[in-house]
Amino acid sequence: MAVLIVILGVFFGLCILSTALLRWNDVRYRKKGLPPGTMGWPVFGETTEFLKQGPSFMKNQRSRYGSFFKSHLLGCPTIVSMDPEVNRYILVNEAKGLVPGYPQSMLDILGKCNIAAVHGSAHKHMRGALLALISPTMIKQQLLPKIDDFMRSHLSNWDNKNIDIQEKSKEMAFLSSLRQIASNEASSISQAFMPEFFKLVLGTLSLPINLPNTNYHRGFQARKNITSLLRKLVEERRASGETQNDMLGFLINGGEKKFNLSDEEMIDLIITILYSGYETVSTTSMMAVKYLHDHPKVLEELRKEHVAIREKKRPEDPIDYNDYKSMCFTRAVIYETSRMATIVNGVLRKTTNDMEINGFVIPEGWRIYVYTREINYDPHLYPDPLTFNPWRWLDKGPEYQNYFFIFGGGTRQCPGKELGLAEISTFLHYFVTRYNWKEMGGDELMKFPRVEAPNGLQIRVSSN
Fold it and tell me: What are the b/e assignments for 367-406, b being 16+ CB within 10 Å?
């Protein structure tokens, strides 16, 4: 009996303590002019609920507090905006007191010179260097031939095999970028580089708590290892005196003089290129394969477009820039895949001073999560929004849609958009002209916080 009383006492004590902590954290952030909402636990806030429940958490909070509410996510007091008009205003008005506001875990792991971390003249400087590497001219003259050569090789021996398309698309996105960055050394450093890079990616979306066995700790250690590998690579290039026709060669021998990048900036720029292209390219490629499998008419139309390109060429001929630009339906498939799968849920901004948005006063230093996921399923913007329909993009391009935020918005629109589209288009070209495939079954898909198949996405591949 005494033991039961003790257990009940402890239980009720914990309940009272939990209620007190939750109440204290809400009172702590109850400033005049803030929008409604809850702040969760001290330090942790509502991060656990956000990462576990994702869209359901957002919808529940919106039903209670409206489309503009406060929370505490990934270690920061945060305003969540789910209003399309407000989101558009925030994205196109960065100069009016809004700067990138990505979580500390991402900034620590991707580097302080990462293009997502800097703003003002520093952002203009780093963005200029990045655009010089991935401009349409560079894609046409240097990058697309490398991408074509890599995709041919990567897909060369899939016939009559069971393939985990998630694993293969991750390898594809990483190795293709590595080949563009360091063409001669890519094969020799990929074995050491790839596992560290995958740890880095996982660490960017985590609480910045540096304890052993946490994703943040592993990601931070992976950054140190990757930085060491890249420094060694830069030193070896300089010592050799050779000029190589790749991104690293451009930065060391040409671009560095024009943009005057330090080694730290150069390494952070390389990590930026690897990271920003990796997740969008790999996940969009995987989900395109999934949607094409489930929609035979779309696959038929896509295959028709690529067979027409192939028929004008010899088997050994690569696709060129004109071929790529002619892939109108392919681009529509990629846009629709990005919309349906919602690979990017939103973007983060931070206030540099107290500012009024949507009738509320947001304190200096608070994050604003421009949550764009629900816009992708708005029936007013996309009739029959849960239907995979690439044809919807052929009538009106995304540049004419004020609320198309798949590639970001304003001055922060993804600079690697065209390069990513070229990589996915080239992959789809060789995949659909060479192979048929069937899903093996039993694969679960998660849509938040990342789109992924926890146990892989298995397909059986056969030649056309």
Answer: bbbbbbbbbbeeeeebeebeebbbebbeeeebeeeebbbb
